[in-house]
């Protein structure tokens, strides 16, 4: 696919200078034209400079600063918020010992939410991209609906969920009526609500990459599968799904990574016993306890853990396009 | 553009050595490393103060810059919805010729501290000339030397400060802070769901309320009420043992599922949705909720007592407009202006004489114990003693762990 893209990218440029196709001649381009091309290719480096500077300033430097802070020590008799530069690696052992459960829980919640989002998002993407292909208006409306949640703030939407799932709200009333929920059962302040919130909030990140991928799916391949007497499920498993793997990869990563670090959902929809996620702990260590080294160490561990998980995942299931 | 090098060979060598690319790069690398080691930590750290030095106050430019910037909490100053102005503040600007910029920048003591402490430790201007923070955070800032000493001669009206607020343990003689408003933390309940009402904090633990109780995530209020319920004098000498006993109650009620959630300001939404039927709450919130949502809730100080807290006006160390800030403080300590604010914000007014001034503004509010509390009412409200630095870190660490963080 990447090869294809490269050809496509170069196609128009080659056509524009057109004369290159003339048979028998040497490169007919003047020295000026060649110079212009060289300048263009050098231009590429200049164009990535702002992005590079941006990442250096807002990602690389903060990461180093985070690392430095995570090793600070509290001198005896220091006041709140006072630390001295040091190499106190024990900070990592301390926070890991105290908060490994919250760390594992965050990944577990994020994993469940990612799988749920995949199960919900894939059919949605398939419907819009494949089933409705050619029906531009309907596709457009459905795509807008998929993106629509982004038009309101993340926190407001989660707050709305609280009202919908509230004890006196419609969902609980129905679930109680059909005895799916005991009389004194509830939905808010439970792990279930937190995972639902995560799934909902990151669903577009799952749906859109899969849509973008399925949109280019050649439906003649599905027809071919049917011609070869494959059942719809077999066709899906051996043709559609493998072809859409890049979209699935992108979608799962875009859902899993922010979901593991999220703390809004757990803070609003969770309780104070068994739903705390690592983002909440970092927030509480940083602002409430004013333990900057501890908060930094936890952030760093979270980053490294996510990086490790992503590498494992891409190694195991990854497609060439992503590597 | 290449720089023309000097003709003298020795000079030439010196200059070119100075600017060779490798040197420049190494210099930059060295700078970065030095920067790292010297504490470029997130949230700015504090080599400066840890080394024993405290930041020094900025020079006062009030004479030439007629400006004062004030950071406050939301809904904490009289506001005209239609004109979208703060009438009393505009009146101040007109009378004094000092332009007052008001911002609702503060949404939590902890978060605000996290935001500005790096700059304060370095003695920098945080862009605010008055900040408004609660007692315990005011205590921390004053202890750390992050505030400027007020010149009370510039604030003659400060004599109007209520007698019981004049000498607080974190700022004897009010050298660095003046009270803005005060309020209570107590218990509140849904009148329909709890028709009998509640009298003590222990009443929150009755089986009928299981899973419908919420308490504040503000450690001093929740723990203060729990300790009062255990018979502890929270203004007096109490220590780790008393704190532990109260924390045990909290942990047990969370583990048993009696307490649904531990929350900041958002407990109000849960009262509205009905998820929470009884809560530990702030007085002003309940007044405001009853006003907006119909008279559904009741607030009371528990029999064993509630907590009394105040928010305090302070001039941060890097502010270059201290005299302007003092002029603004003086203006709001005028009883008439204080009453104007109190009529809007519904919190306890700290200014002597404001009660009389209120007669002219809204006679009904004169008898409101949540704005002008009687001696009896005040006798049941207690200020949690100021904690030492070690206690502050230790207690909030344990509280955060107990509430699942």
TrEMBL record, chain A:
It is a multi-pass membrane protein. Residues 24-34 have a biased composition (Basic and acidic residues). CDD domains: TM_PBP2 (cd06261). Belongs to the binding-protein-dependent transport system permease family. CysTW subfamily. InterPro entries: MetI-like (IPR000515), MetI-like_sf (IPR035906). The keyword Transmembrane helix applies. This is ABC transporter permease. The keyword Ion transport does not apply. The chain crosses the membrane at residues 45-67, 107-130, 137-156, 189-212, 239-259, 294-314. The lineage of its organism: Bacteria, Bacillati, Actinomycetota, Actinomycetes, Micrococcales. Keywords: Cell membrane, Membrane, Transmembrane, Transmembrane helix, Transport. It comes from Arthrobacter mangrovi. Residues 103-313 form the ABC transmembrane type-1 domain. It is found in: Cell membrane. Residues 1-34 are annotated as: Disordered.
Automatic annotation (TrEMBL), chain B:
Its main location: periplasm. It comes from the Bacteria. The keyword Transport applies. Keywords: Periplasm, Signal, Transport. InterPro entries: SBP, Sperm_putr-bd, TAT_signal. This is ABC transporter substrate-binding protein. Pfam families: SBP_bac_8. The keyword Phosphoprotein does not apply. PROSITE patterns: TAT (PS51318). It comes from Arthrobacter mangrovi. It is found in: Periplasm.
């Amino acid at each position: 696919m990447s090869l294809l893209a490269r050809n496509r990218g170069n196609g128009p440029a080659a056509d524009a200078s057109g004369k290159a196709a003339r048979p028998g001649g040497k490169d007919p381009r003047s020295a000026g034209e060649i110079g212009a091309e060289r300048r263009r290719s050098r231009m590429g480096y200049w164009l990535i400079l702002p992005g590079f500077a941006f990442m250096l300033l807002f990602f690389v430097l903060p990461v180093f600063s985070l690392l430095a802070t995570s090793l600070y020590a509290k001198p005896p008799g220091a006041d709140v918020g006072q630390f001295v530069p040091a190499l106190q690696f024990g900070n990592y052992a301390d926070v890991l010992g105290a908060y490994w459960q919250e760390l594992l829980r965050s990944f577990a919640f994020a994993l469940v939410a990612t799988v749920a989002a995949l199960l919900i998002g894939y059919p949605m993407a398939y419907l819009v991209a494949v089933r409705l292909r050619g029906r531009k208006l309907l596709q457009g409306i459905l795509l807008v609906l998929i993106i629509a949640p982004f038009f309101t703030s993340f926190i407001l939407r989660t707050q709305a969920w609280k009202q919908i799932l509230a004890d006196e709200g419609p969902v609980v009333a129905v679930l109680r009526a059909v005895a799916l929920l005991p009389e004194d059962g509830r939905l808010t302040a439970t792990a279930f609500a937190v995972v639902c919130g995560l799934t909902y909030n990151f669903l577009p990140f799952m749906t859109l990459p899969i849509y973008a991928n399925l949109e280019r799916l050649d439906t003649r391949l599905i027809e071919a599968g049917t011609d070869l007497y494959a059942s719809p499920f077999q066709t899906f498993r051996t043709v559609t799904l493998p072809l859409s793997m890049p979209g699935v990869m992108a979608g799962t990563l875009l859902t899993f990574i922010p979901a593991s670090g999220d703390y809004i959902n757990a803070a609003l929809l969770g309780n104070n016993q068994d739903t705390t996620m690592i983002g909440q702990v970092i927030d509480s260590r940083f602002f409430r306890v004013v333990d900057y080294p501890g908060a930094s160490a936890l952030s760093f561990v979270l980053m490294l853990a996510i990086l490790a998980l992503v590498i494992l995942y891409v190694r195991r299931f990854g497609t060439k396009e992503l590597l | 553009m290449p720089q023309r090098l000097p003709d003298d060979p020795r000079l030439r060598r010196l200059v070119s050595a100075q600017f060779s690319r490798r040197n420049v790069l190494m210099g930059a690398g060295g700078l970065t490393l030095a920067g790292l080691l010297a504490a470029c930590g997130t949230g700015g750290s504090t080599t400066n103060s840890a080394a024993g030095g405290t930041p020094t106050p900025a020079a006062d430019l009030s004479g030439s810059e007629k400006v004062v910037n004030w950071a406050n909490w939301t809904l904490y100053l009289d506001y005209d919805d239609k004109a979208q102005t703060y009438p009393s503040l505009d009146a101040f600007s007109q009378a004094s010729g000092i332009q007052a910029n008001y911002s609702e920048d503060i949404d939590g003591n902890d978060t605000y501290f996290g935001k500005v402490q790096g700059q304060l430790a370095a003695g920098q201007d945080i862009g605010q000339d008055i900040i408004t923070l609660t007692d315990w955070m005011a205590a921390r800032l004053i202890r750390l030397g992050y505030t400027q000493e007020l010149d009370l001669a510039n604030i003659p009206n400060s004599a109007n400060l209520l007698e019981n607020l004049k000498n607080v343990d974190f700022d004897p003689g009010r050298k660095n802070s003046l009270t803005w408003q005060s309020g209570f933390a107590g218990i509140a309940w849904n009148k329909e769901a709890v028709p009998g009402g509640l009298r003590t904090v222990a009443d929150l633990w009755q089986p009928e309320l299981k899973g419908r109780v919420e308490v504040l995530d503000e450690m001093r209020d929740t723990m203060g009420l729990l300790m009062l319920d255990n018979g502890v004098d929270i203004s007096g000498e109490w220590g780790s043992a008393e704190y532990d006993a109260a924390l045990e109650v909290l942990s047990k009620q969370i583990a048993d599922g009696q307490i649904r959630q531990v929350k900041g300001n958002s407990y109000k939404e849960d009262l509205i949705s009905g998820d929470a039927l009884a809560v530990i709450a702030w007085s002003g919130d309940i007044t405001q909720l009853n006003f907006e949502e119909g008279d559904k809730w009741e607030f009371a100080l528990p029999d064993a007592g509630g907590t009394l807290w105040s928010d305090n006006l302070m001039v941060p160390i890097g502010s270059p407009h201290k005299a302007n800030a003092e002029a603004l403080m003086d203006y709001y300590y005028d009883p008439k202006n204080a009453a104007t604010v109190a009529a809007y914000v519904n919190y306890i007014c700290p200014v002597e004489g404001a009660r009389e001034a209120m007669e002219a503004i809204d006679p009904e509010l004169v008898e409101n114990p949540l704005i002008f509390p009687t001696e009896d009412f005040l006798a049941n409200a207690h200020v949690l003693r100021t904690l030492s630095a070690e206690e502050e870190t230790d207690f909030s660490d344990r509280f955060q762990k107990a509430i699942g963080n």
